[in-house]
Specification:
- With 404 residues, the chain is of the alpha/beta class.
- It has a six-stranded antiparallel beta sheet, with helices on one face. A six-stranded parallel beta sheet has the order 10-9-8-7-11-12, sandwiched between helices.
- A hairpin with an 8-residue loop joins strand 3 and strand 4.
- The chain is globular.
- It binds flavin-adenine dinucleotide and protoporphyrin IX containing FE (HEM).
- The site of protoporphyrin IX containing FE has 24 residues, from helix 3, helix 4, helix 5 and helix 6.
């Protein structure tokens, strides 16, 4: 337990942290990777270069500082991060390393303003926050390892099939190498894949949402090739497309994540996706069809055009069912798309269209896609009066802020 004085010091330093938050976390990463380069096997280098991870960590540190005497209030945030930590293999022994370098960075950036008293208070606060993460993660490790078909850490999976779904998206069907069963998952969850790439000094870990319904003897992921124009090509996605073939073995974590379809509910469900953000939606759509055939589900997918539109056939087949409606949005349709009427709406999803076409009042909304797409959908739903608790979304990267 922290004493009142320590709590006051922590809370009074929040504005300072807000001012210097990202500078502190940037410095923190420099110091930590300098002393512990082995951690570069776990962290995503591209997120570091773009500052995305720095922002995510800084945001969480502010929140934790604000709620240091009531961490229960940020438990949902802790859980969401803990899912990712568990899928990456973050262990209790990693926490003191982060704590030590965070304090060093605070001292470094704030200089004399960071008195011994402040540093000591932050040391104590970090220990409390770290304990909260460690205990939530311990439960998650336990559950992942002990459920039927579950496992700890990374397990070898063989690529059983590789299916080209569009010009940019390819699916991989993964079966466990040991031929034993695999853990069930909740639609919307993801796995982490750890790759050793020839010529690369470090391992690279990335998350991929499961794109088929649970209950199969394989996991399916559908991966977009991230081709850089100004920036370098995406490391892992390109390697999966070009360097990983049927029969190859991938290291896979047990499924994780809290962006999940609530199948206890019977409310209409609306699944909105942009680009490769359709993967968790496919799993949700297929699950509703399989286990809730009475539940109304609307699938809205936005793509540039038919050439990059993945899994179209699967959605079209399911749209034959009475409870399923689908709409395809293309912002740059090709001549062939036009000739063959391959899309329903040209352009981008708008609030007016959502209002006109969807059952706004009682539906649950799930969405995922590029950040501008997510911002538009989120803002539109809020403006149309959809309550927070019925809006669910996933970021394909460190969590950002949709209201900025
Ligand atoms: C929960 C979750 C679920 C996901 N599900 C899916 C899914 O189902 N399908 C899918 O395809 N993806 C999914 N992703 C995204 C996926 O994890 C990877 O981020 C994606 O495949 C890109 O990885 P990469 O290694 O190819 O690219 P990275 O090498 O990580 O690069 C990412 C981006 O950064 C740019 N970049 C690289 N280096 C630099 C630099 N030095 N400076 C500036 N920019 C740079 C690249 O051009 C690229 O656009 C998901 C992510 C999360 C968090
Ligand atoms: C209390 C301490 C910690 C806090 C507050 C914290 C916070 C976060 C946050 C906010 C994210 C982004 C989650 C998301 O939205 O995707 C994240 C991801 C991550 N964390 Fe932590 N974390 C802590 C401890 C650790 C430790 C001890 C390690 C290991 C040394 C670690 C490694 C990672 C990695 C590798 C990622 C994913 C990074 C990426 O994709 O670039 N974290 N953490």
């Amino acid at each position: 337990m922290l004493n009142q004085k320590t709590i006051e010091i922590i809370k009074s330093t929040v504005p300072v942290l807000e001012k210097h938050g990202e500078t502190i976390t940037t410095r923190f990463y420099q110091l930590m990777f300098g002393n512990h380069p082995e951690l570069l096997n776990i962290f995503n280098h591209a997120n570091q270069k773009q500052g995305r991870q720095q922002k995510a960590l800084a945001g969480t540190v502010y929140a934790a500082a604000m709620y240091i005497d009531n961490l229960e209030a940020i438990l949902p945030v802790v859980k969401q991060i803990a899912h990712k930590h568990r899928s990456l293999g973050i262990k209790p022994e990693h926490y003191p390393i982060v704590g030590k370098h965070l304090l060093l960075a605070i001292k470094d950036v704030l200089g004399e303003a960071a008195t011994d008293e402040i540093i000591d208070a932050w040391g104590q606060a970090y220990a409390v926050i770290a304990d909260a993460f460690i205990s939530v993660e311990a439960e998650m490790y336990d559950e992942a390892a002990n459920k039927q078909g579950g496992w700890d850490g990374f397990r070898n999976f063989v690529v059983d099939r590789k299916v080209v779904e569009s010009d940019v998206i390819t699916s991989f069907y993964l079966m466990p190498k040991d031929n034993r069963g695999i853990a069930d998952f909740i639609p919307g969850q993801y796995i982490s894949i750890k790759l050793e790439i020839v010529g690369e000094k470090y391992t690279h870990i990335r998350q991929y949402s499961l794109s088929d319904a649970p209950g199969k003897d394989y996991y399916r992921i559908s991966v977009k090739r991230e081709a850089g124009t100004v920036n370098p090509d995406g490391m892992v996605s390109n390697y999966l497309h070009d360097g990983v073939n049927v029969g190859d073995v991938l290291k896979v974590s047990a499924p994780a994540g809290d962006f999940v379809l609530d199948t206890e509910k019977n409310t209409p469900v609306v699944l909105l996706s942009g680009g490769v953000g359709l993967t968790p939606m496919m799993s949700m759509l297929k699950t509703v069809v399989e286990i809730q055939p009475e539940r109304s589900v609307t699938f809205v997918h936005a793509a540039a055009n038919g050439n990059v539109h993945a899994l179209r056939g699967e959605v079209e087949d399911l749209s034959e069912l009475e409870n399923v409606t689908s709409y395809f949005y293309y912002d740059s349709p090709t001549e062939e798309d036009r000739r063959n009427n391959r899309f329903d709406v040209e352009g981008y999803v708008t609030r007016e269209w959502l209002k006109e076409k969807l059952s706004i009042k009682d539906a649950d909304f799930y969405f995922c896609g590029p950040v501008p797409f997510m911002k538009t959908v989120n803002r539109s739903l809020l403006e149309l009066g959809v309550k927070d608790g019925r809006i669910h979304f996933e970021f394909f990267g460190p969590k950002g802020n949709l209201e900025e």
